## 1
Amino acid sequence: MNVRETGLIGRRGLILAGGAGLLVLALPPARALARPSLQEAVNGFTGGKPVETGKVKLDVPPLVENGNAVGVTVAVESPMTAGDHVRRIALFNEKNPQADVAVFTLGPRTGRGRLSTRIRLATSQTLIAVAELSDGSYWSSSANVIVTLAACIEDLS
Amino acid sequence: MAFRLAFAAALLCAGIAVAQEIPPGERRSGTDFMSAETRAIQADDGSNPGMLWVLQGESLWKEPAGASRRSCASCHGEAATSMRDVAARYPAFDTASGAPVDLAGKIDQCRTTRQHAAGLPRESEELLGLSTYVGHQSRGLPIAPPDDPRLHAARAEGKRLFETRMGQLDLSCSSCHDANWRGRLGGSAVTQAHPTGYPIYRLEWQAVGSLQRRMRGCMVGVRAEPFAYGSAEFIALELYLAERAAGLALETPAVRP
Amino acid sequence: MSRTLVSVPKTAKVGEVIDIRAMIAHPMETGYRMGPNGQAIPRKIIRHFACEYDGEEVFSAEFHPAVSANPFVAFSTVATKSGALTFRWTDDDGKVETASAEIAVS
């Protein structure tokens, strides 16, 4: 989790003050400011090429119990043949200290344009999945996730 | 002060109920309170991260250790047979020490007195691996606390501790887990605090941890000084929790938020 | 010590798309956390994961700190012939851990 684990009181205070929305404040400010926006991160992946909506299905639970392990499934409509397949799938987030989550490389031998993983979300935010197809086109889908946290958080010390 | 009020408010939302033991018919594992996603992680061994600790325990089980150069397997053989149902009956009375011992304590005892190896600290990766592996052999079996008269005093002490108010928030385990188990606190289900899944993989810890670590979390939550790992207090609480959960199936390694 | 867990079907028909899951025990330390002494805990993550089968990389992933501890991926591949699928995880220091699983394809 991208927060100080030692700040029990502070953290509990935040949680009880109404959800995890403020947790990102516990991060070193320089880093929090340095991260690119979601749009900049997507542009970095596509090289500025236009991104169309569709073909990609991003599946995340709208409400998660703990931001430390949020199950994500991305499925892209594609025959996955040598001539027409998904080349890469990238996942980006809006409010973690870094925009990048993961980039997956696929090909015709992958069989399906589909994968699942588990990711960390520092707070409630938007996620976006962008797929690069073998014809050089980009497709995306985004989703909002609300993160609640466990209530009894122990002190590490 | 703000925290105390917030906690009290959270409990109020849950509806004030008088602490009362949960009737057997209403006992439910913590799994029942989790989201479908968390349950799915637990249900599938290929995606349950707790299984990584089971695997580690399995390799330790076979590994010769200590001055004896004996492995657990060299005395106990296949864990699937020799350790099946063991976790369901712990804590148990230990004649050697003349006191109740929990599963991790028993494993550590074999480690020191039979393998003649250095003891394994509580919450060390090795002890968690072995406890998870041994616990896993009882998965699906009902919790069956031994009816050993030598355990009665400690079990009664466990019940007393469970019902004793503690910490700056002045709440007992029972205030939450008997009286308000249907409620939610800061987004999480309070639950009935059954020890069905231990050691558990907790998403909050991002690792496997013991029942005692979990209880320490709750004690810190009410701003009480937590009991020490391996203390008689924690073993007494474990004894009472096992009795309170008698008949519920073991799930080790469970996944919890 | 075995701290990886992969699941691959034992058998499959040629051309069948099979489901694969892979997990490794790793804290995925983000580099953004503070230790109890107020010092930043240095970053240490699995940076790269790859699955190779029948002479070719069929799936790979580049991870960032936002991937959960004990990273998990589920993906698929087309069963081509009997043999081993090999899995490779590489961390920030270039340390590599591997696992493999056999499949019989008919």
## 2
Amino acid sequence: MERLIRKGAEADIYLGEWFRKEAILKIRKPKPYRQSELDVEIRKKRTLHEASFLMNARKAGVSTPLVYFIDQNKAEIVMQYIKGVRLKEMISDRKMDNIDALCSEVGRCIARLHKNNIIHGDLTTSNFLVVKNRLVFIDFGLAFFSQRLEDMAVDLHLMRGVLQSAHIEVADEAFNKILKGYAEIAGMNMIKDLVRKIKEIERRGRYARVE
Amino acid sequence: MKNRLEIDKGIFCWGCESTAHTFSCSILKSDGRILSDVKSIYTPPPGSGIHPREASRHHIEVAPKVVKQSLIQAGLNMKEVDAIAFSAGPGLGPCLRVGATVSRALALYYDKPLVPVNHAIGHIELAIMLTGAKDPVVLLVSGGHTIITAFSRGRWRVFGETLDLTVGQLLDQFGREIGFSSPSGQRIEELAKKSSKYISLPYTVKGNDVSFSGILTTAKKLFKEGKDLDSLCFSIQETAFAMLAEVTERALAFTEKKEVLLAGGVAANKRLQEMLMEVSKRHDAKFFVVPKEYSGDCGAQIAWTGLLAHSANISVDIEKSFVKQSWRLDKVDVKWRD
Ligand SMILES: Nc1ncnc2c1ncn2[C@@H]1O[C@H](COP(=O)(O)OP(=O)(O)OP(=O)(O)O)[C@@H](O)[C@H]1O
């Protein structure tokens, strides 16, 4: 009945039904390579975070799949099936006409999350689903609450890294659009602070050398 | 010797590595044969880290012997070499300058093209050549690097990296705390084998990036409080390597590539190999690991990459052959790969 539709890095994603509605079953299966206590700790924590932050994000004004059911011990979540295309494929297939608009919307959504002290923790183009012209954010397993500028900057730094590694041909343009969208919600001052912080983070981590 | 060259046509590249604690020279032939790989490693006193100036002094002292030995072992003289390659970065300034100076002088004297090599790419190219990997997701882990990278559109693109310490630094700095001399990865691996008791340490994955500073601070503190050292070593490995395995898995899922290559000095760790092998299996990817003797910094990495670059007509004028202490691998146009 359930069909495996994707093997994510963390979880297996099945398409099935939940009370006669199409639904996604996301299971964080044990990873045999991981020490078992650590493995259980990670899977439980992320399942719980994911479920609660899918809801928190919605309250902050960002669309996410509805959560139908969660089993923390089995590290399973049943959620609404979103029939959409990932932004990753939209960019790769060069459906360029609305990419700009979508990137601005990505920026606005991230700003809404940050405004509510929600750090997504895993901003990548495979975690934005596009349905018609709307954006749905998924994969909140690494999300957490924070008011620190640093955490928000790391969030955006990761986003930029993904664009530069996976979508180099549009990376700079897309990131600028994201910042523009972000600024619409959070204001220019906030963006200035963030950009400064991102630069600092990049200087710090990169090419750490034996000291 | 002349005879062999005449029968056996090919291109020869001499390479010099001196980014950090290792000074090493090597000659490779275009068919991939490593004709020589001679090295001398600077070891700081137990409990202290590598001091750039001390290390560079060591390099200056050993350079003549290592250079000479690399030629003797290969049975060649410098005139028979087609190109001279050196590690131009990233690395410690004083150390880099020793290798660069030696290489410049040789290139000038023998009138050979001088080829600058990015050391991270050196690790990767030699590992690819030795393992036969074709288009892998690479986890490069050493004292100087912790990077997850894959090739796309002319460059090695960084999918994930550390936000603070490298995994090598984590192991060395913890080792220093307990009085080991650097590098201490091997000793920590031995101690880790003696325990299977897991002590919880901060597991920090942020998107595709990792952070090791939490592990280091916590482990140091627990050590001072008298926690069992074997269990601490075990737990540091379990936590840090699981983080690396996870981000590698993420890059694999994202890029949908079908090969994983583990490279860099820490690649020698059996537990890390085991974890990455499992990751590869789960995604039906082939797993490769660089042979142990070429996992650490060595001249062969530079000579081989220099040879590839030379074959793509890459060289630098002596006057412009600066070293670049923080030369990112994703800034290098890799013209020899498609
Ligand atoms: N609610 C949903 N509706 C439709 N598709 C979904 C849904 N949730 C997940 N998917 C699909 O499954 C993929 C993986 O899901 P998700 O990102 O939640 O898992 P993961 O294992 O954490 O992935 P990652 O590899 O990004 O870490 C998504 O990119 C998307 O294609």
